[in-house]
Amino acid sequence: MSxxxxxxxxxxxxxxxxxxxxVSLVFPEGTMTFLTGHSGAGKSTLLRLLLRADSPTRGQVxxxxxxxxxxxxxxxxxxxxxVGAVFQDHHLLAERxxxxxxxLPLRVAGMxxxxxxxxxxxxxxxxxxxxxxxxxxxxxxxxxxxxxGIARAxxxxxKVLLADEPTGNLDPALSRxxxxxxxxxxxxxxxxxxxxxxxxxxxxxxxRIVELARGCVVRDDQVTSLSERKDSGG
Amino acid sequence: xxxNEPWPKSKRPIAAFFRDHAGVIRDxxxxxxxxxGTSLLVWLLIGTAMSAPAGLYLIQRNIEVISRQWDSLNSxxxxxxxxxxxxxxxxxxxxMRNQIEIKAVTxxxxxxxxxxxxxxxxxxxxxxxxxxxxxxxxxRVTVADDVSVARLSELASQFEAVDAVEExxxxxxxxxxxxxxxxxxVRLGWVLGILFGTGAILITAASVRLxxxxxxxxxxxxxxxxxxxxxxxRPFLYFGVIYGFGGSLVAAMVLSAALILLxxxxxxxxxxxxxxxxxxGDEPAFFIGLALVGVIMGVAGGLVASNxxxxxxxxx
Lengths: 234, 316
Description:
By secondary structure, chain A is of the alpha/beta class. Chain A has helices at 43-51, 76-81, 98-108, 113-126, 142-154, 172-187, 199-205, 226-231; strands at 4-12, 18-27, 32-36, 58-63, 66-67, 83-86, 160-164, 191-195, 208-213, 216-220. Chain A contains eight helices and ten strands.
């Protein structure tokens, strides 16, 4: 379980403007949230801060009450092993097979080969790519590559799942399936944060929506824990 | 849960460590063998760089052995004045024999010297024209093996003051020069060792850096999924080991060829001085040492390249 809190976070890039301005947000544990907003609104920066790929210029980011900017360089890898990340540009290894790409986080974690095989096939099955496990990633379509990236992000059963435009290359039906997959993860307690332009899909999913514009939070539909959604028939 | 971590750290099984290493070794061999041409060039460069100081080391070792063997021949020659009586010669010889540090004294009379001289030269006829024997009596004095060079000179100078003595020759100046050359080679070996060793490390570092640049995307992904720096560095250190070890094999081949070429003339040279000297350098210990040095330099090169570059690579 993972509670995430942004406390008056500002991120300024050298030679650029402020990507985030005094942002305070709480993502309670086990929730699913959509970040939306135009390009340059600060969605990706927020996710990068959570991935500990960057540190805030001002303010603090807490995960389970631990200020992750203060994580030692030795502890950052362990932290990232618990955070699944999906990017629009996939970050796949072109020289390796679908199976090898998905197995990577498990190998890094030191899992046994038979367990790796079981977990990888389960993840590939969930994204509908089991039959392509031996394929090279170059042989896949953009949508399939995106699904490999998603399988890799979920294979290690992360405590936090971050997705930056995960459905950017997918058709509407597949996008809905992927979002349902994220939802299933959320249902077993994973805190899920998805950055997406796709307002139609976001609205359809019915989860909390945080809208960013020029680095500021301009809208936050606070409600929507799983129980509230169920109560409201969502 | 540690207070500075959001989640409890899961223990990585020890078996995973060995599994990872086995996998990385396999991948590293695959990588270097798939780029055999490049790898061969790297091995040749490192091997050449290692050959010079290693060769100097062998030369120095052989000079040391020779000088040690000759060092044990501690002796000096006493040349008496022409006309010194046999009694004077025998008295001094006896005085010398009484010294504990002197092992043996062999005297040569002027007549014996003339006989020996005659047997070696073609100028006997000229000698017969002389009315008297111009050669002096002499004595060859051998001291105990544990007598140092300095003590030998002291002993010799003791007898210089004796009236009947014309000159005392301690035949060690050439040995002194040999030792000076030995010292020079030792220092030259160190200088070249440092220079070429640094060169070999830099060659390895450049080659590893090249391999690293080809894998930047992979490193980003590994960082993304939580690989530690040690995990990411591992293949590059093994590249260093393979390059360093390969380089040491090339150096071993170069030196072996040099030893084969030099052994016969070297043996002939020393046997002309009546010495039996075994050529040093073809022992397994030397080659094991060479391989170890190569591996250490390879790891150092791998560390130099990966430490520097990994800091610069971040997740985008």
